[in-house]
Amino acid sequence: MIIESAEEQDIGRIKEIYRSAFPENEHELVATLACKLLVEETEPEILSLIAKTNDTIMGHVAFSPVRIENNQNCKAYILAPLAVDSGYQKQIIGSSLIKQGLEILTDDGIHLVFVYGDPEFYGRFGFRTDTASEFNAPYDLEYPFGWQATVLKEWTQKNTPAAVSCVSSLSNPDLW
Ligand SMILES: CC(C)(COP(=O)(O)OP(=O)(O)OC[C@H]1O[C@@H](n2cnc3c(N)ncnc32)[C@H](O)[C@@H]1OP(=O)(O)O)[C@@H](O)C(=O)NCCC(=O)NCCS
């Protein structure tokens, strides 16, 4: 398996992966998010990774930059979305995509990475609800216990709780 940057030409296959991995009532929303993040231009850049074997893309993850209110010193990202095609799950593909993404962000000097998801799964990768509790998510959360963060590099946090704002593709309350 190799993990590499996703390209615009992968959009069709990435949509299929989200349609297979998520329930019918959610998959269109999340597939659309994955595709929008692939083309949205931000500074710093969005990281969009695919896992593939023999030219078959099996999983996808995106990490996009977030801004922390009143703290330009903290460079932060959010992991969203993530999916592995239902035919390839439980083969460490999702874990590898997360680990590779966190490694790249660590090398880039990023301090903090958020995620909104199941703590039982993301806890394996160092994400904690108490780390995120100093930060307010961009929208009201349907599942507040899913708001987590992991520290990659220490920094000085002032004025907590601080508001977090996200890129345009994620600026949709239905996603939260
Ligand atoms: C979640 C997901 C990306 C994991 O990818 P994967 O390649 O199957 O995962 P891995 O093989 O790396 O890890 C599998 C382990 O994670 C566990 N796991 C998967 N989803 C989980 C969840 N929601 N909560 C807790 N554990 C979970 C599996 O039980 C398995 O545990 P084990 O190692 O003890 O057997 C994949 O199952 C998926 O696409 N699910 C549907 C979409 C989704 O939920 N995306 C995340 C949104 S927050």
Average pLDDT over all residues = 96
Q: What is the approximate shape? A: globular
Amount of beta strand = 25-35%
The radius of gyration over CA amounts to 15 Å
Kindly, what is the distance between the CA atoms of the first and last residues, rounded to a whole number of angstroms?
32 Å
The top-level CATH class is Alpha Beta
Please provide the count of β strands.
8
Estimated helix fraction:
25-40%
Q: Examine the coordinates and then state which fold CATH places here, giving the name of the CATH topology.
A: Aminopeptidase
Bound molecules: coenzyme A
What is the chain-wise order of helices and strands? EHHEEEHEHHEEE
How is the biggest beta sheet arranged? 8 strands, mixed
| Assigned CATH architecture | 3-Layer(aba) Sandwich
The stretches of 5 or more residues where confidence is low (pLDDT under 50) are none
State the secondary-structure class.
Answer: alpha+beta
Counting structural domains, the number is 1
Total count of helical runs of at least 4 residues: 5
At the fourth level of CATH, the homologous superfamily is Gcn5-related N-acetyltransferase (GNAT)
